[in-house]
Structures are given as structure tokens and as C-alpha cells.
TrEMBL record:
Protein known as: DUF2993 domain-containing protein
InterPro entries with a match to the protein in the record: DUF2993 (IPR021373)
Pfam families assigned: LmeA (PF11209)
Gene source species: Micromonospora echinaurantiaca
Length: 261
């Protein structure tokens, strides 16, 4: 019986070799499919980035070249279906002009979900890329906002979760430093309003006229912020002071994220 062992082991060894070969081939094939999938996604991302650039230009705005990432895997099945789980767009150094005043948004992140785009649209760049929901988050720099208020020496910053102001003011012949915070509201149409209702100044003369002058200064810097039209029909829903600036949250539904050809 001992002499039969070598003959029984040979088929087993051949079987293992065949199995290993099949596994290797499957892994290679899977790798090639992943590579092809990512290459196709890259082509689509570049095509969408070019169309987003045109959309931004339509709003009389400027930005660095858009950065686009198509989410979801595999990508090719999404192409065939004409629907994409998510398209993320990053716009840097966004600048627009409103009433002659420049508004700076260092970074605008746009997250488009449930995006519809035909294969022909992706390939040719002609047609609409429509997103069911679009959410945008950006930051308005405090320097840019201070320029809009147009008060020499005025500085804005975040303080305990609120928008704080510091500014030199001449009141009754005295140079005082005014400090305080603002209430921020967002209107139905996405209009952002700043109201400085809580200002004070150390050393303020204890006379009604001094208090009236301080109140007038507060009214002078209480403004409706002239935000530029955001791309993709985004409407502002919330504004929060952060250390780096005013964080703006906006959204929209059923909108094109490209310029239709």
C-alpha cells in the first residue's frame, strides 16, 4: 500500500496548481477591471470639470480649475445606468463681484447626489448633468467682509461662536476702541444680514450723546451682506462664525451642475 502514495499525490498537486493559476488569473482580471474603471472615471471627471468651469463663468465669477471626483464603485455600471451616486466638486479661490465689491470664498465644496447624465453627455460634453440634491459649504474670509463694511481699522473674528467686531472710533473728541458682537440671520431668499446690537467702548463718556453716536456707528456697520450668486442655483441656509471666517451652508434640488451644450 505504501507504494501507492506517490501516484495519489500527483493528481492532488496538479489540482492545486490549476486552482492557484485560476486564482491568479482572476486577481489579474479584477485588477485590470479596476484600472479600466478608474481610467473611465478620470475621463468623466475631466469632462465634468470643464463643464463646471463654464457654469462658474456664467455667474460672472472666477475660481481655480475645478477639482471633480466621481464617487461610487464600480463607475462603469453607473455610466450604463446614467445615474451617479455622488459627484464632489471643489472650487478654490472663488471670487465674484456684487455692487462693485469683491467677495472672497477661499474654498467652496459642492456635493451633488443622485446625478443624472447620459453616456452621450459624458462622452461629448453636450447635454445636461442634473443632480437631485446639491449641498455647498464655503467660507467668507473676515478680511473680505471687513472691506465691505468699509470702516478703517475694523476687524472681525469669531468669539465664543459669535461674530465679534473690534474697531477704533472717535466719539466726542476721544479715540475709543469699540467691541461687540453681531446677530447673523438668513432670509428666505438666502440673504445674509449682520446686526451689531451689542456694542460697547471702554471709557465711553456717560452722556446720552456719546451713547447715541455709538448706536449710530452700530447701525452703520449693520448690513445685508452682498453675497455673489452661488453656482448651481445654491441658496444659503445657514451662516456660522468659525475661526477662519463665516461658514456658509447652501443647498438646491433638481439643478444642472453644468452648462448645457
Amino acid at each position: 500500500m505504501a507504494q501507492d502514495y506517490p501516484y495519489e499525490e500527483r493528481p492532488r498537486r496538479r489540482g492545486r496548481k490549476v486552482l492557484i493559476t485560476l486564482v491568479v488569473l482572476l486577481l489579474v482580471l479584477a485588477g485590470l477591471l479596476v484600472v479600466a474603471d478608474r481610467v473611465a472615471a478620470g475621463v468623466a471627471e475631466r469632462a465634468i470639470a470643464d463643464q463646471v468651469r463654464q457654469e462658474v463663468a456664467k455667474q460672472d465669477a472666477q475660481s481655480a480649475p475645478p477639482e471633480v471626483e466621481v464617487g461610487g464603485f464600480p463607475f462603469l455600471t453607473q455610466v450604463l445606468d446614467g445615474r451617479y451616486e455622488r459627484i464632489s466638486i471643489v472650487l478654490r479661490n472663488v471670487q465674484g463681484s456684487v455692487q462693485g465689491d469683491a467677495v472672497s470664498v477661499p474654498r467652496l465644496d459642492v456635493d451633488a447626489r443622485d446625478v443624472r447624465a447620459s453616456l452621450d453627455t459624458i462622452r461629448s460634453g453636450q447635454g445636461e448633468v442634473v443632480a437631485e440634491t446639491v449641498n455647498g459649504t464655503g467660507t467668507i474670509s473676515y478680511d473680505s467682509l471687513a472691506k465691505l463694511l468699509d470702516r478703517p481699522g475694523l476687524r472681525l473674528a469669531e468669539q465664543n461662536g459669535r461674530l465679534a467686531v473690534t474697531a477704533p472710533v472717535d466719539i466726542l473728541g476721544q479715540r475709543l476702541t469699540v467691541t461687540g458682537t453681531a446677530d447673523i440671520t438668513v432670509g428666505k431668499e438666502g440673504q445674509v444680514s449682520l446686526r451689531f446690537n451689542d456694542l460697547d467702548a471702554e471709557g465711553l463718556p456717560n452722556v446720552p450723546l456719546a451713547r447715541t453716536l455709538l448706536s449710530n456707528y452700530a447701525k452703520g456697520i449693520s448690513v445685508d451682506v452682498p453675497l455673489p450668486d452661488l453656482p448651481f442655483q445654491l441658496t444659503v441656509r445657514e451662516v456660522r462664525p468659525l475661526p477662519e471666517g463665516l461658514a456658509v451652508t447652501a443647498d438646491a434640488r433638481d439643478v444642472p451642475i453644468n452648462s448645457a451644450g
